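Supplementary Note 3. Input sequence used for the single-chain structure prediction.
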Amino acid sequence: MSGVREQVDRLSTECQKAAWNGGHKHGCKFYRTGRDRATELSGDPKAWANMMEWVRYHHSSLMNATLAECIRTTQQTGESFRDVSSSYFLQVSVAYRADPSLPIEQKFELRGTHFVRRDDPMSQGIAPFVEVGRQGAVKMGQMECGSEYAGTGSYLVVARFRPNDMSYYAGSGQDGIPFVKHFGVNRDYACAKLACRHPLAQLQDNISSGRKMRFCCGRTPRDDTCCCGGWTHELMRLDADIKAVKVEDDDVD
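The predicted structure, written as discrete structure tokens, is reproduced below.
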């Protein structure tokens, strides 16, 4: 299934204001606390930075799984995509591996994945964290997508930074530190055709194997590589029939 459009790094002034006023400033304070707590629990001053890099590496996989689960739920319940994306979130539980020899994509061990309804009694302890920054993300998605806006998806990563210290958190889970990410979805992606495989099974494979999901922005017949120049993946040659079109066009010129 194709990936959803991501929020760009360089945003308009309006988008930046919407994000800041919509909860970003509160999110900054919240995550500073998380950063300090991660260092305290793990003894590693780079623990929080490693988590941010890990999330960034696996973001496309996490986002795609969230989107796919939203679409599956709309098909099963008949609810609109907007209602589903605002009522559910993807929860991913991971454990920190404080091993400097590991590459960033393997710094966290996957412990569980769940697509959760916010009002589910079992999610009451973590559901409030999903609201961090969401208001601003919704406004940003509406600005970016305009009339094509379909909804805003959310995934929540809960990381344990002292996973093997059973005496510390047994039965309480007090070492779990949450990090939430939101993304806008347009109508095309909200109606995307799902792959045959269950999205959470694919997500688990991607994370466990350290595989990065990449999306290409398309191809152009006049180039030997895809139009993004290979920035999303390995440089790849165009297939034979497209290259043939290129040769014919060159002959005409």
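The longest helix spans residues 47-77. The helical segments are 13-42, 47-77, 81-87, 134-145, 166-169, 187-190, 199-209, 240-252.
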